[in-house]
Backbone:
């Protein structure tokens, strides 16, 4: 499987606005080696902060990133999806981003539709989202280079079994992550980084609102241009 340098000056990641920046990670002065102790002290006085910080023991000290915007990179590794993801078991954090806005949009719309359906969100609702843009300039393993039969298995739309198996092999070999053809936006690419320092710290650009009609996300509101887009 090929290891290639990927250079995307504007990789896009879209997250729910309800998740605020984690202030412990945003500080410039705090040494990441001290975060465990600081989190323990702050958690003693404020349980909400303990929940906000997440499990920072999941990230080795040498892999932690700090400063403005760092919580956007650290969050997927300290607040891990309990259901896992295509390249991560329920105990593994992965930072996902799309090579372009449309890829990030289509991927996240799919996953939020699954979330709403699983949680029986039958009523109309909207979800405010943040659009993050950051650089990718790193070597990752290229899923597109896999033999066809295995590539098809890894990219199955509704099964993550082969993707997780591949990710386990790559992690054991010291890989920093994968770049893979987008399953939800043909022609797009996505990155799945296995460590925070493999990606650049992004900045927030604009806000969106995903509209759930009870069955699917049927439109997106762009606050920047104040207009709805039908999906």
Residues:
């Amino acid at each position: 499987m090929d290891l290639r340098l990927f250079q995307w000056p504007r990789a896009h990641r879209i997250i729910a606005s309800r998740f605020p920046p984690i202030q412990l990670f945003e500080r410039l002065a705090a040494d990441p080696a001290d975060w465990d102790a600081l989190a323990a002290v702050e958690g003693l006085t404020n349980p909400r902060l303990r929940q906000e910080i997440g499990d920072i023991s999941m990230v080795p000290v040498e892999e932690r990133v700090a400063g403005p915007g760092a919580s956007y990179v650290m969050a997927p590794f300290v607040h891990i999806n309990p259901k896992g993801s295509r390249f991560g078991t329920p105990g593994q954090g992965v930072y996902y981003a799309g090579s372009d806005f449309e890829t990030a949009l289509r991927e996240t719309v799919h996953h939020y539709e699954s979330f709403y359906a699983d949680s029986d969100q039958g009523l109309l609702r909207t979800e405010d989202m943040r659009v993050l843009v950051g650089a990718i300039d790193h070597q990752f393993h290229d899923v597109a280079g896999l033999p066809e039969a295995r590539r098809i298995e890894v990219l199955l739309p509704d099964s993550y079994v082969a993707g997780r198996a591949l990710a386990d092999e790559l992690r054991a070999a010291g890989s920093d992550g994968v770049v893979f053809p987008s399953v939800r936006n043909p022609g797009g690419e996505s990155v799945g980084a296995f460590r925070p320092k493999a990606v650049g710290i992004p900045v927030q650009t604009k806000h969106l609102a995903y509209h759930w009609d009870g069955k699917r996300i049927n439109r997106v509101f762009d606050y920047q241009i104040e207009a709805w887009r039908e999906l």
Remarks:
- The helical segments are 23-26, 35-45, 47-53, 70-78, 101-118, 148-154, 161-172.
- The longest helix spans residues 101-118.
- Residues 23 and 71 are 8 Å apart (CA to CA).
- The two ends are 35 Å apart (CA to CA).
